[in-house]
């Protein structure tokens, strides 16, 4: 009767395990009942349930979620494959028609570095109240990239203890952009600024420019910031599949089958990384708090540059589009479109916002590369 | 590794981002400029003439040239360019021509006189997307601020309102159609009942 204990898994349930089962259930409820990012939250929630069933062993040793973590996350294969799909999905046209928006994307990455500084201040840098090493602080900051794959790539490459929390925070706050951004935008932009109309821009981008864009971006980024090559390379390969116009079937596969398969695997794997005894520590809560700080600082910095552009362009640029420098696409664009229409029902800012938003996608990848370059440089 | 180092990371990080993206911005602007120069600065959706002045010159030449007749084809030379031009409609103050499959509608108006039937204004799509609903018909009088279309873009339903009051001359899109930003959705003119 030695193996009888194997049937009484519930007797081995720790309080951490119970809490995590609750969290997994809550993620499932959010995804299914409230339709919050269901494609991500349903697999993550279920993975979390699986990983916290006592004696199930899926997330330890040779368990299947542990194996997926080894081959997909530690090797950084999953985030890179997803980036090929994302690159194939994004039309960078709205950005290329308004190239100046890339500066808004650059500014809106400040949340990454500002939050890194704060986290390091609370951890090993000064106060020592939390167990945040330099690498952990950088991983927490990267939540501000507002981009799941970049967050996974950077936090695992740096070897942070909080990969699971960082990734869950990055994905869930992307869904919360419509709640986080509007109060900040309203506070920083007056009503007449929000109502500023911008003319329709069309047809200024040549087809050749769109085809060469992914190649040029990869080379420029690679030459100046080589650590960003895997991410920007995967993203731009996807975009080249889309824009070259000669590999339609590859572009379609990247956008649909590849992205769906990898998202499913990534979801259950991240869920599997949420094991109670490691996940439930005071630091995890702080990771989530600092995640909101990162998104907010991104928004503030993007808006600040947006306001500068508003002044220096002679009131031609609506400052709100600065908030879209954050790469949460298309949530952030929708927020600005809504706020623009609220101030003036004829004021459709959507495509201008999308320009800044997709530019932010590139900027956040470069920011990830910058973090990966600087942290090892300063670590000794 | 102290706080000063962390501050350096923040500064250097932002510097790297602005450096990379600044170079990229420059590269893309220059690249696009060079293609535009080689193609002669053409614009999608407009006749491919080199400058706006050339379009205007063509328009005035067309209207002042007596042998022009509806239904006829002409050879059109602009600098070294040669194209076939077809006159589709011709009446007082109004010409519709077709060049290389693209249609161009021209209205000629002397100051102070307006032409009957000339559309005063157009409503253009402010964003690309799918026309979900067309809420007006040809000949219908609309008031300023009246809802004309609903266009779906990025899973958002966007209402397009009339910029001013008038009569709808033509609805140029159908429900379910995909539109580009800047595409003409509707032409409308002053309310005839009011102007008479």
Top keywords for this entry?
heterodimer, A: 380 residues, mainly alpha, 19 helices, 0% strand, B: 196 residues, alpha+beta, four-stranded antiparallel beta sheet, 12 strands, 35% strand, flat
Q: Roughly how many Å is the radius of gyration of chain A? A: 21 Å
Tally the beta strands of chain B. 12
Strand ordering within the main sheet of chain B: 1-2-3-4
Biggest chain pair contact, residues each? Answer: A-B, 64 and 50 residues
Helix and strand composition category of chain A? mainly alpha
Which ranges of chain A are low-confidence, i.e. pLDDT below 50, for 5 or more consecutive residues? none
- Overall helicity of chain A: 55-70%
Q: Could you state the order of secondary-structure elements of chain A as H and E?
A: HHHHHHHHHHHHHHHHHHH
Mean of all residue-level pLDDT scores of chain A: 94
Characterize the largest beta sheet of chain A: strand count, sense, and whether it forms a barrel.
none
Please estimate the helix content of chain B: 25-40%
Instruction: Characterize the main sheet of chain B.
Output: 4 strands, antiparallel
Return Rg of chain B in Å.
24 Å
Q: What is the end-to-end distance of chain B?
A: 83 Å
Oligomer: heterodimer
Give the low-pLDDT segments of chain B.
40-50
Describe it for me?
The complex is a heterodimer of chains A (380) and B (196). Chain A is mainly α. Chain A has helices at residues 15-32, 38-51, 64-74, 77-89, 93-97, 101-107, 110-122, 134-141, 148-157, 163-175, 177-188, 191-194, 207-224, 229-244, 248-272, 276-279, 282-312, 331-343, 350-379. Chain A is built from 19 helices and no strands. In chain A, helix 8 (134-141) runs antiparallel to helix 9 (148-157), helix 13 (207-224) runs antiparallel to helix 14 and helix 14 (229-244) runs antiparallel to helix 15. The mean pLDDT of chain A is 94. In chain B, 28% of the residues lie in helices and 35% in strands. Chain B has 3 helices and 12 strands. Chain B starts with a helix and ends with a helix. The model of chain B is unreliable at 40-50 (pLDDT under 50). The chains are: A mainly alpha (380), B alpha+beta (196).
């Amino acid at each position: 009767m030695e193996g009888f204990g194997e049937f009484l898994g519930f007797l081995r349930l720790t309080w951490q395990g119970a809490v995590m089962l609750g969290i997994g259930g809550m993620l499932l409820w959010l995804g299914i009942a409230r339709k919050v990012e269901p494609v991500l939250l349903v697999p993550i929630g279920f993975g979390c349930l699986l990983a916290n069933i006592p004696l199930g062993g899926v997330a330890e040793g040779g368990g299947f979620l542990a194996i997926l973590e080894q081959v997909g996350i530690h090797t950084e294969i999953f985030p890179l494959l997803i980036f090929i799909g994302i690159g194939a999905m994004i039309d960078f046209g709205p950005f290329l028609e308004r190239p100046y928006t890339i500066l808004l994307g650059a500014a809106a990455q400040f949340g990454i570095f500002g939050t890194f500084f704060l986290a390091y201040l609370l951890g090993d840098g000064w106060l020592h109240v939390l167990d945040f090493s330099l690498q952990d602080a950088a991983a927490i900051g990267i939540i501000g990239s507002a981009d799941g794959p970049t967050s996974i790539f950077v936090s695992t490459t740096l070897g942070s203890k909080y990969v699971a929390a960082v990734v869950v925070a990055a994905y869930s706050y992307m869904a919360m952009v419509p709640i986080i951004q509007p109060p900040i935008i309203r506070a920083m932009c007056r009503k007449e600024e929000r109502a500023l109309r911008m003319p329709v821009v069309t047809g200024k981008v040549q087809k050749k420019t769109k085809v060469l864009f992914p190649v040029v971006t990869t080379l420029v980024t690679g030459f100046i910031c080589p650590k960003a090559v895997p991410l920007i390379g995967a993203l731009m390969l996807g975009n080249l599949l889309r824009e070259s116009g000669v590999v339609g079937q590859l572009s379609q596969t990247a956008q649909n089958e590849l992205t769906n398969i990898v998202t499913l695997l990534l979801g259950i794997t991240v869920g599997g990384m949420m094991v109670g005894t490691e996940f439930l520590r005071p630091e995890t809560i702080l990771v989530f708090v600092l995640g909101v700080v990162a998104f907010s600082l991104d928004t503030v910095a993007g808006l600040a540059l947006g306001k500068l552009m508003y002044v220096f362009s002679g009131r031609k640029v609506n400052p709100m589009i600065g908030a879209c420098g954050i790469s949460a696409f298309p949530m952030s664009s929708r927020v600005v479109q809504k706020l623009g229409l609220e101030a003036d029902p004829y004021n459709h800012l959507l495509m201008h916002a999308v320009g800044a938003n997709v530019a932010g996608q590139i900027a956040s990848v470069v920011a990830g590369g910058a973090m990966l370059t600087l942290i090892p440089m300063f670590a000794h | 590794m102290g706080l000063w180092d962390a501050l350096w990371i923040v500064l250097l990080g932002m510097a790297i981002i602005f450096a990379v993206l600044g170079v990229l911005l420059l590269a893309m602007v220059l690249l696009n400029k060079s293609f535009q120069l080689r193609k002669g600065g053409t614009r999608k959706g407009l006749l491919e003439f080199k400058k706006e002045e050339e379009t205007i010159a063509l328009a005035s030449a067309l209207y002042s040239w007596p042998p022009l007749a509806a239904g006829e084809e002409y050879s059109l030379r602009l600098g070294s360019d040669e194209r076939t031009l077809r006159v589709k409609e011709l009446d007082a103050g109004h010409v519709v021509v077709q060049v290389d499959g693209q249609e161009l509608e021209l209205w000629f108006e002397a100051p102070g006189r307006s032409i009957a039937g000339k559309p005063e204004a157009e409503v253009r799509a402010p964003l690309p997307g799918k026309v979900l609903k067309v809420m007006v018909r040809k000949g219908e009088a609309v008031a300023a601020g009246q809802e004309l279309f609903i266009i779906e873009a990025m899973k958002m339903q966007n209402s397009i309102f009339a910029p001013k009051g008038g009569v709808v001359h033509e609805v140029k899109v159908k429900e379910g159609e995909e539109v580009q930003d800047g595409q003409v959705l509707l032409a409308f003119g002053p309310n005839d009942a009011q102007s008479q």
